[in-house]
Amino acid sequence: MSRARTLAVTAAAGLVVAGSAFALPAFTTGGKGGPSLSSAQAQLKSTAVSTNSTYDRFVVRWSSGNPSYRVRYVNQVTQDGSGNPVTLKGTHFLTVRFFSARAHTEAGGSVGGPKVRTPLYASLRQMKLVGDFEGVVTYGLGVQGRKPFRVFRLTNPTRLVVDIKH
User: What is the pTM assigned to this prediction?
Assistant: First the structure.
């Protein structure tokens, strides 16, 4: 391949990557939600947390289904069903709630990995599974400060991403 063509291909690839970064939603503190993208009840597969230089990330991956969701700041995280308060590290709290979803197998076994993660990142301090009740799965996120966040879906594999700005 000629040097000029190599540079052109490299530049075009850079534009595709840059273009996809610009397509991400803006960071805000307002609540966010999205509709279900399938008719089947979603089955949780795994969760993950990570950090980068400008934001911390919480990811929920589904093995089937693609549920509706709502993510918002709350004054107090409570357990689904009982309404009991949940303590989380951090000064502010996000709930990440999925509808028509489950975090257990048909036989009642647990899925999705640890129910509590305490990474103590700059913004994301702690994550807890606080509900898997009557088709609603809820996570509480402890955040250091009321930081802007963004939410978006990715496919292959199906997952929801919550980024919390530093």
Answer: 0.85
Task: State the pLDDT at residue 21.
Answer: 52
* 106 — pLDDT class (breaks 50, 70, 90): confident
Check if the beta carbon of residue 126 is closer than 8 Å to that of residue 96: no
Residue 127, token pair as written in the block: 């994550």
Best CA proximity match to 139, nearest among 89, 108, 93:
93
Dist. CA 26–CA 141, nearest whole Å: 19
CA 148 to chain centre: 14
52 in helix, strand or coil?
coil
Q: What is the pLDDT of residues 63-80, one digit of tens each?
A: 888 999 999 999 999 998
Distance CA 132, CA 147 (A): 26
3-state helix, strand, coil in the chain (%, to 5): 10, 50, 40
Chain centroid to Cα 146, Å, comes to 17
The answer for residues whose C-beta is within 8 angstroms of residue 128's C-beta and 6 or more apart is 77, 86, 88, 115, 116, 139, 140
